[in-house]
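Weekly structure sync, notes
Attendees: PL (lead), two postdocs, one rotation student
Agenda item 3: pending single-chain targets
PL asked that the sequence for the first pending target be pasted directly into the notes so everyone works from the same version. It is reproduced below exactly as submitted, 280 residues in total.
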Amino acid sequence: MAWEAASQKHVREYGDLLAQAASGSSLTGTERDLLREVLRCSPRVVHLQSGHGLDDVALVQAGARSVVGIDYSQVAVRAAQRRADELGAACRYVAAVVPGAPLADASADLVYTGKGALIWMPDLTRWARDVARLLRPSGHLFVYEAHPAVPLWTWDEDQPRIRVDRSYFARSHVNDTFPARGAVEWQWTLGQVVSAVAAAGMEILHLGEYPEPFWRPGGVSAAAWSGRLPNSFALLARRTRLQQHPESAHPVTVLLVDDHPLVRQGLHAVLSAADGITAA
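Predicted structure, written out during the meeting:
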């Protein structure tokens, strides 16, 4: 399969990746800044589409209690588990399709993803709902990903240019650059990403756009990366403590039988955490 063939890179470069994992250098400064308070609470992390697993070791080094990595590839999962075991990192890996990770509901304090993850999601609504399912109440989602406008930029070195064969609003495109070499990637606008997360019952805490790509291929110095254009974004969201069922589009009203002031006050305190539920 294509995924397994592509993941052989994690085996061929095992030694170099092991050294990178040990250094904890895979998390960017932006990621560390935005996750500092979350990691201070020693969260249990689920990493969707964990790939080589370097970020998982770095998250543990930065304060995470444990990380469960989910990836399509058996090859990637085995290589990442071997690295984590060698380094004594509290990481466990599962080969599974996303969305639909075989993990219990409310099993994560933090769901971490990105760096080339959303481009493989054909249904962003299902993905966001599965993230909300995995999160404990008040748990966090963190996405650090290529900006949705990136497919439009050429890799010309003299000046930034827009590819005339692509559209920001297209459903997908064929990635003809390294390392994809012909893979079909799904496209999502920034508005679609934010809307899917919010509709799944998560509160947006931070949304930032950055000129720096999360990854630069060796030997390429594109003018689009010089600071004038968006190349990455970060989103931090929090699951609300009580949620409506994602299929429900109607508000719920609770009728009080006992209208004692203390009863009403207590019920309002509980319902204040819920979206679309009121007391009458």
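Discussion points:
- The CA atoms of residues 44 and 210 lie 27 Å apart.
- Residues 245-249, 252-257, 275-280 have pLDDT under 50 and may be disordered.
Action: rotation student to compare against the earlier draft before next sync.
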